[in-house]
Design goal:
The complex is a heterodimer of chains A (229) and B (315). With 229 residues, chain A is an alpha/beta fold. Helices cover 33% and strands 24% of the residues of chain A. Classes of the chains: A alpha/beta (229), B alpha+beta (315). Chain A: It is found in: Cell membrane.
């Protein structure tokens, strides 16, 4: 699904690259934790997958296609196949939960009748039934993140990227979001989650990819937050 | 409550085979809602844009109508004699016949008409029928007989004047259109002035649209960031901004068209029509210019927004 071959990303020549010679392959349907201290290159890696950035050298492939070579006008199609969720939720404050999800469908040209059917369904799936008409400031942090997940899901992405999705949530709420992402993964969506949450990583026992100073220092199946022998 | 366990029954429409969705843009209704909300949110800037566009287009329209007026006067005069050859009172019959024959053979001259003293006096009395004092002081003997020429090309009157001035029996050769030179100069000056002011105002309008887009793009940066994230096309992301500007431009165009129509009714038809002997431009010109400023206002504002977006919106 995702393959990175000798990927290096430098923002300014002369300084240490944000990513240095990364080789990584993520299969369809996998769940991968991306761990490492702040500034280790996790977000840069996610941005390369979204074509927010292009690698300085090396090749980033998504579904067999070189991401950097996708023409600009086709990039939106890539982004419809790669959903994302962020630490700060990124919801529109002047739209309800349903409005936020509908917005993603509206701006990608979905017909109105599809929007009307799908929005309540997907909000129900993320556990927000009955809260469709609440505004973000009337929802808890966990509920806001569920809206963000619902918004990412309506395009039926093949990959879901989550950048510190539990970073702003208390442990119990974070675990709820984690379960939601696990459920999404179980129905076949590849999930790549960057996180600092050691407890979650240790509990889930999924594949762990660790970055440090832009280099890949660990790629372990069923790993924990800290390296184990 | 579905809960995570219900994911197996997720019934979202799948993308078509091949994994690529088509690049359809936003529905018109959704687009309009975003554009209008944005216009309302930036009300002060939007009003400034509308005012600037209105002034710019009114000046542009006024300039175009002045051009129409020049054409109207031109058309009026083209139907009339452009060059008059006044004859000496002492001209002999033979001289007159030679002159007439030369004129008829001249390729620059389309039509020649001889007017004797009696006919000249009759026309004089008709032209000044509203001024009996002037008519009473003039008799047929005071007016010269003349050849009145219509030229094939009125702009070559100078050649005719040079060629026939000083011939035997010719008193002088007059280009009647030359009498109107001051009028043309005024009309031309007004036209140039109107266009120049319109150009300055267009710059102001552009600066305001640029600001409007900048403010709007800043106010909606979260919205546009989300649009990019969920895979909206560049066209879709830009469309609400272009629409916002086009709506402001169209409003300016409508106000300008209204101002021009009001000008035609109150200034041209009610005031100038009584003060001049020349025909004034008609409603066809006004409608054409009104439609023109409306289209220019809408189109140019949208285009200006497009230019501003290249700078202020990263897609």
């Amino acid at each position: 699904m995702v393959r990175m071959t000798s990927v290096t990303k430098s923002y300014h020549s002369g300084t240490r690259p944000a990513l240095d010679d990364i080789n990584l392959e993520i299969g369809a349907g996998e769940f991968v934790f991306l761990v490492g201290p702040s500034g280790s290159g996790k977000s840069t890696l996610l941005r390369l997958l979204l074509r927010e950035e292009r690698p300085t050298s090396g090749v980033v492939e998504f579904a067999g296609r070189d991401v950097a070579s996708i023409p600009d006008r086709r990039v939106p199609l890539l982004r419809r196949q790669v959903g994302c969720v962020f630490q700060d939720f990124r919801l529109l404050a002047d739209r309800t939960a349903a409005g936020n999800v509908a917005f993603a469908m509206d701006v990608t040209g979905r017909p109105r009748h599809v929007v009307r059917t799908v929005v309540p369904e997907v909000l129900d799936l993320v556990g927000l039934a009955g809260k469709e008409n609440r505004y973000p400031d009337e929802l808890s942090g966990g509920e806001q993140q569920r809206v963000a997940v619902a918004r990412a899901l309506v395009a039926r992405p093949q990959v879901l990227l989550a950048d510190e999705p539990t970073g702003n949530l208390d442990p119990a709420t974070g675990a709820g979001i984690m379960n939601l992402l696990g459920a999404i993964n179980r129905v076949g969506t590849t999930v790549v989650m960057a996180t600092h949450n050691a407890a979650l990583v240790d509990t889930m026992r999924r594949r762990v990819v660790e970055l440090e100073h832009g280099t890949l220092v660990r790629d372990q199946a069923s790993g924990g937050y800290e390296p184990t022998l | 409550m579905g809960g995570p366990g219900g994911f197996w029954r997720l019934r979202l429409p799948r993308p078509p085979a091949g994994g690529n969705e088509d690049m359809t843009g936003m529905r018109a209704g959704a687009l309009l809602a975003i554009g209008v909300t944005s216009l309302r949110r930036n009300l002060a800037t939007s009003v400034a844009v509308i005012v600037a566009v209105t002034i710019c287009l009114t000046l542009l329209g006024a300039g175009l109508l002045l051009r129409a007026q020049v054409h109207t006067v031109d058309g009026f005069l083209l139907d009339r004699i452009q060059v008059v050859i006044d004859l000496d009172d002492g001209i002999s019959g033979a001289e007159r016949d030679t002159l007439a024959a030369d004129l008829r053979a001249d390729p620059l001259v389309q039509n020649v008409r001889y007017e004797d003293k009696a006919q000249a006096f009759a026309r004089f009395r008709h032209d000044f029928r509203n001024s009996p004092d002037i008519v009473s002081g003039v008799s047929a003997a005071d007016l010269p007989a003349s050849f009145r020429l219509t030229l094939a090309d009125p702009r070559r009157a100078g050649e005719i004047i040079t060629y026939y001035t000083g011939r035997d029996g010719v008193d002088r050769v007059r280009d009647q259109r030359a009498l109107l030179a001051p009028l043309y100069r005024i009309l031309d000056a007004c036209t140039i002035g109107a266009f120049a002011l319109a150009a300055v105002q267009a710059l102001a309008a552009f600066a305001l649209i640029y600001t409007m887009i900048r403010v709007s793009a800043h106010g909606r940066r979260r919205e546009t960031a989300i649009m990019r994230l969920v895979g909206a096309t560049n066209g879709t992301i830009r469309a609400p901004f272009v629409l916002e500007s086009a709506v402001a431009g169209m409003a300016g165009g409508l106000f300008a068209a209204a101002a021009l129509i009001a000008g035609k009714i109150y200034l041209v038809d009610h005031r100038f029509a009584r003060q001049t002997a020349f025909p004034l431009f008609g409603w066809e010109a006004v409608w054409a210019v009104a439609v023109g400023v409306l289209l220019i206002g809408t189109g140019a504002s949208a285009a200006m927004a497009f230019v501003a977006l290249r700078r202020h919106l990263h897609v």
